Amino acid sequence: MAAPAEVVYGTEQWEKCPLVPSSLLPAGPLYDINSPSGALEHLSFPHSECSPVQNHLMVAHYKNGNVELIKPTEVTESHVKIKVNETSPFGLVRRLLKNWLDYKSKAQVLLFLRQLSEKKKLNIFLLSSNVVLHEVQEKQKSCTFIETSSHCDLWENEPYSVSCDLENAHVQPDTYDFVRDYGPNFPPTFEIFLNNDVKELTVKVINSTRRGKRIYINRTFIFSGFSSSGQAPPDERLKAVWTRLIEGLNASVIQSLLDDMLDMNVLNDGEVESVKEGQTCTKDKASCLIDMVRKKGTSASEKLLSKLAERDPALYITLGLHRQSVD
């Protein structure tokens, strides 16, 4: 920033801003960015390139129906930086390389558990590393995100499959050719249907090509901590949205939640005062409140979630904390 100002941004579909020439491909989400003129000096875009030389990366800037290609001022292993004069849609793009069929991309494997009427369904996503988690969570509000170490490097346009250690589990589809997907819909790459009594599962993501068979992800998951509704315990649900909850709570809601926790005997007078008087900024108050309640266990966390749903229903839904009806 060149000066203090508000920056508002969101993601758009690349289809709204077609790339010309056709030798250019999206390399990240398309962002619609707005701020007062002259307030913004530089932008840094996360990328998912494995190549040691990222000189094929540029930023497409859309203005009045035209596309301007901006050369980066700096390229690191994780970001591309550009200088900007005005704001509108921006998106990271890459040139189509001659050997693009042999190209690897930094990727992530995301897992979401959903409770159906008689089954569990595990949704598995193979996505570029610069896809933001909460954008996928927005499309999976009826599911519980399963946190695990997820980063890997995947070959583009090569087939991948998923296997698990249970004979009666059904996996679909059989294979998927990995391509970069920047939304906005994010359908699951693979689905595994499991019996409701399954408590533990080992999942592998496998690539079998001319390079031979290679396992990219091999993880074991414990489902016993999830409720019959498919949701994690309340304290774990708070932990999963910790950062975004702190960002989203305002001073008025925090004050109301403190009063609620005092009335419900979750916090005592001294604890409430330590949040009100011991913390100076709103985010610190929010963090202190959530931390105190989480440490008191499942029942206390459930009470905080129930009151959050009353005090700020929009935030509660945005974070995916609301209970969904069973299919």
TrEMBL record:
<dbReference type="InterPro" id="IPR051249">
    <property type="entry name" value="NLRP_Inflammasome"/>
</dbReference>
<dbReference type="InterPro" id="IPR025307">
    <property type="entry name" value="FIIND_dom"/>
</dbReference>
<keyword id="KW-0395">Inflammatory response</keyword>
<keyword id="KW-0963">Cytoplasm</keyword>
<feature type="domain" description="CARD">
    <location>
        <begin position="236"/>
        <end position="323"/>
    </location>
</feature>
<dbReference type="InterPro" id="IPR001315">
    <property type="entry name" value="CARD"/>
</dbReference>
<feature type="domain" description="FIIND">
    <location>
        <begin position="1"/>
        <end position="236"/>
    </location>
</feature>
<protein>
    <submittedName>
        <fullName>Caspase recruitment domain-containing protein 8-like</fullName>
    </submittedName>
</protein>
<dbReference type="Pfam" id="PF23679">
    <property type="entry name" value="UPA-FIIND"/>
</dbReference>
<keyword id="KW-0399">Innate immunity</keyword>
<dbReference type="InterPro" id="IPR011029">
    <property type="entry name" value="DEATH-like_dom_sf"/>
</dbReference>
<keyword id="KW-0391">Immunity</keyword>
<dbReference type="Pfam" id="PF00619">
    <property type="entry name" value="CARD"/>
</dbReference>
<dbReference type="Pfam" id="PF13553">
    <property type="entry name" value="FIIND"/>
</dbReference>
